[in-house]
Design goal:
The chain has 305 residues and is of the alpha+beta class. The protein has two domains: 3-119, Probable inorganic polyphosphate/atp-NAD kinase, domain 1 (Rossmann fold), CATH 3.40.50; 135-295, Tumour Suppressor Smad4 (Sandwich). It contains eight helices and 15 strands. The strands form two sheets. Strands 5, 6, 7, 8, 9, 10, 11, 12, 13, 14 and 15 form an eleven-stranded antiparallel beta sheet that branches. Strands 2-1-3-4 form a four-stranded parallel beta sheet, with helices on both faces. The two termini are 29 Å apart.
Length: 305
């Protein structure tokens, strides 16, 4: 019985210009190694029932690998379809942030990723986090950070130092219009109160580093990271922004940071809120419940990594 794999490509992702040719190249490399592949285009709407049935049929037929060409949101969508199956996820990063690919140490140039995964790969198991039962692989963002993330998304292909003024202008506008929220946190059942405009929960903790994207050095530690920025004067914003870019935010007294295995976030009244899960917008009702599925997702990494 031949080895089977599925290739799914999101041709609307940030770096998708050469995606069709790269998908064909990967299929050719896998065929040369004895793997039969089926290619599926990523649909306009990820919940499209016909596409989901087709994917599930291929998985039920015995596919053992699923290669995803896309950004973090596409990867998350496909990961939710293979949870609980003995199927490893291979990632060719085409998005803007590509957080999971960065943290896995995968090549961020799509052609290099195809070459690396097509010549043999090892399987590594990573944790999956959940917010109210919905899985995410990188981070769940609430409050002001959702607005800033959308600004960053709109500036695809812009360098770090060119996008910083845009983020600062957007942050200034949001700070003037976005209220502080008083939330109650239960982190591993330890209660505390936090007043903030933004809250981020990560699948395993962050480690500060220079640039717009803090790293997660461990992806299978079965811990959540919980982060927020406490109240302070508006004029302090540029300094805080520079601490993010320089990688020194871990030393900031205004940056709230904790680790835990389970988290519960409550508001003064029940409300509906918009969150970004791995960059994708979703609506949630409070309270918010976070937990982890340790080492639940097999992913492919280059054999020499």
């Amino acid at each position: 019985m031949s080895d089977n794999a599925i290739i799914v490509g999101n041709t609307r992702a940030g770096q998708a210009g050469d995606a069709p040719a790269l998908m064909r190249e990967l299929a050719g490399r896998l065929a040369a190694a004895g793997t039969e592949t089926t290619t599926l285009p990523f649909p306009e709407v990820a919940a499209e029932p016909g596409w989901r049935r087709r994917l599930d049929d291929l998985l039920d037929a015995g596919a053992k690998r699923l290669y995803v060409f896309g950004g973090d949101g596409t990867v998350r969508t496909l990961a939710t379809r293979v949870l609980g199956r003995d199927v490893a996820l291979g990632i060719v990063a085409l998005g803007t942030a590509n957080l999971l690919a960065r943290d896995l140490g995968l090549p961020l140039t799509p052609a290099d990723a195809v070459a690396a995964l097509g010549q043999g790969a090892d399987v590594r198991r990573i944790d999956v986090a959940r917010c109210n039962g919905r899985p995410f692989l990188c981070a769940a963002m609430f409050g002001m950070t959702t607005q800033l993330a959308r600004t960053r998304e709109a500036a695809r292909g812009v360098g770090t130092w060119r996008i910083l003024p845009r983020l600062l202008r957007k942050a200034y506008w949001v700070l003037r219009s976005y209220p502080f929220q008083r939330v109650r946190l239960h982190l591993d059942d330890a209660p505390l109160t936090l007043t903030t405009r933004a809250l981020v929960v990560t699948n395993n903790p962050l480690a500060p580093r220079p640039g717009l994207y803090p790293a997660r050095p461990v992806l299978d530690g079965a811990e959540l990271g919980v982060y927020g920025v406490t109240e302070g004067p508006l004029y302090d914003l540029p300094r805080l922004a520079m601490s993010l870019i320089s990688g020194t935010w871990g030393e900031e007294p205004r940056v709230f940071q904790r680790t835990c295995r389970r988290a519960r976030i409550l508001t003064s009244r029940l409300l509906s809120t918009t969150a970004l899960l791995d960059g994708e917008r979703e609506r949630f009702g409070t309270p918010l419940e976070f937990d982890l599925l340790p080492r639940a997702l097999p992913v492919l990494v280059p054999a020499d990594s």
